[in-house]
Known about the structure:
- This protein is α+β, with helices and mostly antiparallel strands.
- It has a domain at 128-192.
- Helices cover 43% and strands 12% of the residues.
- It has helices at 4-24, 46-65, 72-105, 134-146, 154-164, 168-172, 176-186, 201-206; strands at residues 196-198, 211-215, 218-221, 227-229, 239-244, 247-252, 257-260, 266-269.
- β5 and β6 form a beta hairpin.
- α2 runs parallel beside α4 and α4 (134-146) crosses α7.
- The protein is elongated and about 100 Å long.
- It starts with a helix and ends in an 11-residue tail after the last strand.
Amino acid sequence: MATIQQLQALKQNMNKQIDKLIESLPKPADAAGNDSEPETEDKLTPLQKLEKRLEAANEKLSALTSKKVTAKTNAEKDAETKAKLEASIAEIQSKITVLQEKSAAKPAAKKAAKPVEKVEVKPKIDKNIPRITPAMTTQLKAEFESASNAWDDKYKKEFVDEMNAMDADDYASKGLESRMTAFAESKSPAAGGGGIESLTVAELRAQNKNLTEVSAGVYQHKTTGKRVTGPPEVSEEDLDDAAFEDVDYVVGAKSKRVYLASSEEFVGYWGVGKFYAADL
């Protein structure tokens, strides 16, 4: 009569034989008849890899612009990261254009069996925004909320179409956040400035604690919901150098309009909103 040890050894031997049999079986195939291994980036074409990188960079830039910055060090780091992302996006777009031009320049292959009618191959249009990502949609909705405009999903396609209709250099002249802000404000019933009251800087300062900045130089009253702004640009006014929170600016002597010293981009009014403490 077999002992318990002999039965256990017999069982272990049978399990090993079953494992070997399973390993010898062919791997299952997917519905298309391919081995069920995930597709890797190595299987993508160079153009598809660049488009994938461009989409990821745009999504990172959108997430960065929608981030709430509270610390000075974070603001400086985010500004540096944003500049690097925008430079990377411009470089990727340039590489995509080169690949597309090379692809369009290749002659169409001729069939040896019989002559065929030549078909004109149109080059693929380079897109500033290949598609709108979930992160970009969230940021665009936030811009509509800041502009007190009702959101509609149709605006996603309208925004992408409007951005892709722009020349690549024109599109790259401003950041994605600025583009979204301008687009959201353009959908206001009072678009064009008719619904925004122009005040003096002194008047804006007097009600500063009740104002929320919705875009550069445009503020909304927390109680009334009314949107206000400061003086318009004055031609040939003197510009004074100024610094605030380790950033260099130039300020209009009359209008008190504030511009980044590095890019001359308008960012608000000296003594109002984020520059309130700078003039105390």
